[in-house]
Write a structure and sequence with these properties.
Strands 2-1-3-4-5-12-11 form a 7-stranded mixed β-sheet, with helices on both faces. A 4-stranded parallel β-sheet has the order 7-6-8-9, with helices on both faces. It folds into 2 domains: 161 residues, Rossmann fold; 146 residues, Rossmann fold (3-Layer(aba) Sandwich), CATH 3.40.50. The protein starts with a helix and ends with a strand. By secondary structure, the chain is α/β, with parallel strands linked by helices. Helix 2 crosses helix 11, helix 3 packs parallel to helix 4 and helix 6 runs parallel beside helix 7.
């Protein structure tokens, strides 16, 4: 009887220790390493994992969805028990979810929002991001406030804001809503608008610089406001404007962006960027790591930087969204 009791206690101790030591092994894939904003999100995920001594592998999707699919397969084959994926193409969510579901591995999608129906297909899939509509509204509000406070902004005195729009990836939800809601906010402020040109620059600074050069050649000083879906494109537009003689001798063109990256904040201080919207890379990265680590460790109680919520943003302990709020940033 005594031997049985000792054996029972020993088994109980071993079992408890194994449960307590359960840790996540996280496979992370970023849509493209050279994206400025995502480099900060990635850095935060990596630093959180290092601080917690969590096993993690972070791979570059290189802007290629088929490559990212292969990376996901490799993670699952190698026994990673949690995945965090910043999708190359949001339309691919269903494929990635099916892969994770087949292996019963929890999945955290982040920064690029999947469709509602995709997210509902597997109970152990979550999304971390920010409401793109908010960023567009804040961007438009910055532009509207400047227009109302600066009579000289209406260069041709026709009472209408003539603008150009630099769009990110057209397939991306953030690009869609930032484009739409920035102009809605300007109209809601009682300002008439006229779109002179709009085109995609795929989030890229160099592409945006080229687009802006072409628009300046075509429209010149008829342009009264430049909207960009992210700061890299805003900075590209600013480079083109500098080359055309703007930001010297009183010649000015207002440019607004989104992300509040360090290079954009430098431009803000220098007076070449009118405003931006803080897309909180630090807290998006932390929330992504927190979710992936807790799910991989089998936790039933999820805690993160913002409460679990539903698609509509309403807090819900059983929700599958973590919404990290935006903030307007001006000089």
């Amino acid at each position: 009887m005594k031997k049985f009791a000792i054996l029972f206690i020993a088994l109980a101790v071993v079992g408890t220790g194994a449960f307590a030591q359960a840790k996540a092994k996280i496979g992370v894939s970023i849509y493209k390493f050279d994206d400025t904003f995502m480099s900060y999100v990635r850095g935060k995920i990596e630093s959180e994992a290092k601080a917690a001594s969590t096993t993690i592998s972070v791979q570059d999707g290189q802007g290629d969805q088929s490559k990212q699919n292969d990376i996901t397969d490799l993670f699952l084959t190698q026994g990673y028990n949690s995945l965090a994926i910043n999708m190359v193409e949001p339309a691919s969510a269903n494929v990635l979810i099916q892969k994770a579901a087949a292996k019963k591995v929890p999945l955290v999608l982040f920064n690029r929002e999947p469709g509602d129906l995709d997210l509902a297909k597997f109970p152990n899939v979550y999304y971390v991001g920010a409401k793109a509509q908010e960023s567009g509204t804040m961007e438009g509000t910055i532009a509207a406030n400047y227009w109302k406070k600066t009579p000289a902004a209406d260069k041709n005195k026709d009472g209408t804001m003539q603008y150009v729009m630099l769009i990110g990836d057209p397939a991306n939800t953030d690009a869609k809503y930032r484009t739409e809601f920035s102009i809605k906010a300007v109209k809601a402020a009682g300002i008439k608008v006229e779109e002179l040109a709009a085109d995609t620059a795929m989030w890229q600074r160099g592409d945006a610089q080229n687009k802006m050069q072409a628009w300046l050649a075509k429209f010149g000083d008829k342009i009264e406001m430049v909207f960009a879906n992210n700061d890299d494109m805003a900075l590209g537009a600013i480079e083109a404007l500098k080359a055309a003689g703007y930001f010297t001798a009183g010649k000015y063109m207002p440019v607004v962006g989104v992300d509040a990256t360090p290079p954009a904040l430098d431009a803000l201080k220098q007076g070449t960027l009118l405003g931006t919207v803080l897309n909180d890379a630090v807290n998006q990265g932390k929330a992504t790591y927190d979710l992936a680590a807790q799910l991989g460790a089998g936790s039933k109680t999820i805690k993160t930087v913002a409460p679990l919520a539903n698609k509509d943003g309403q807090p819900d302990a059983n929700g599958h969204y973590v919404w990290v709020p935006y903030q307007m940033v001006t000089k």
